[in-house]
Amino acid sequence: MNITELFNHKKILFSLEIFPPKKDSSYQTIYNTLLKLRGLPVDFISVTYGAGGSEAQREKTVEIASLIRTTYHIEPVAHVTCVNSNEEEILELLEKLEKNQISNLMVLRGDITPGIEPKNVFHHASDLAAFIRKNAPSFNMVGACYPERHYQAETLDQDIENLKHKIDAGVDHLITQLFFDNERFYEFMEKVRKTGISVPIEAGIMPITAPSQIDRIVSMCGASVPAKLAALFERYGNNPAAFRDAGIFYATEQIMDLIANDVQGIHLYSMNNVDTATRISDAIQNILIAENQTD
Ligand code: FAD
User: Strands 140-145, 44-47: parallel, antiparallel or unpaired by DSSP?
Assistant: First the structure.
């Protein structure tokens, strides 16, 4: 199934993102996670890909995506990064994905990993998208975008100009980096639409459920933290259970505001956390049904 075509008959998509565990010993956990996620009304589950990971680790993305399709009957999206790959390696990976009937890809450049020299074959996600469009045109491609600008772009406007290359290369649908301030997303959307980019854009939302996540997440993606969220962090920093509730509450409120403002999709960075995914899904399920009801 082509997930972008879902927008032809659904107003809002709801999707989750999971990652392959680093250790083989954690695999039972991911199977249990998927088993519990199976009941959630999600349109797709995307599986991340370690840009600097070993061959064996990369195989895990294909394996888990395949399992999501065959065992759990949910549409998978396999992430593919290109910074550390050459054309042959990408072709080999595409062949494996095709064999496993995985037809939706998240095409990414990936981050430059310290200690690993980039292969300098694909410089940007747009190069990967163009390569896939030419060599394996049946794949549906999703790309990344950044409401608060990608860290290497000097300005948001420049980043959005660059985003056009991704669309011109054949990306069908975009998912944003996580953000906590909806106003930043609305401003971004206005700019993106003004440039003529018309593909569907899903909003990436990550509930912060433990104090240990704050610094890591914020430094990794540069998302700005609104005063209201900072106050929740401060107020419940010493109470893990209350902190967790507050994080889920904030994300749910953020999602409700996005829905009220006609967002096209919510992509939940659920970090393999079943409880978070379930609580948010339960909170918005009837709202999604109402929004997606056709007249
Ligand atoms: P690009 O689109 O190539 O952009 C990178 C920089 O280059 C930007 O500053 C952009 O403005 C500029 N640029 C883009 N195209 C051009 C062009 N044609 N000419 C000139 N400049 C250009 N990382 C992983 O390792 N594994 C994952 O599974 C993963 N999943 C992700 C999922 C989502 C939804 C998001 C938002 C990010 C994900 N990432 C993942 C992180 C991502 O790999 C990094 O953010 C990376 O630094 C940029 O990837 P990109 O595909 O956006 O790159």
Answer: unpaired
Chain centroid to CA 216: 17
Which residues fall within 8 angstroms of residue 210, CB to CB, at 6 or more apart?
Answer: 240, 243, 244, 247
Which domains occur in the chain, in start order?
A: 3-293 (3.20.20.220)
Nearest to 64 by CA among 110, 108, 109, 16: 16
User: What are 216-248's pLDDT values in tens digits?
Assistant: 888 888 999 999 999 999 999 999 999 999 999
The ligand 1 site (C-beta within 6 Å) comprises: 48-49, 51, 79, 81, 106, 108-111, 124-126, 144, 150, 152-153, 159, 162, 165-166, 175, 177, 204
Please tell me the number of Cα atoms within 13 Å of 89 on its side-chain side: 16
Q: What pTM was computed for the model? A: 0.97
- Closest atom of ligand 1 to 47 CA is 28
Does residue 17 carry a catalytic annotation? yes
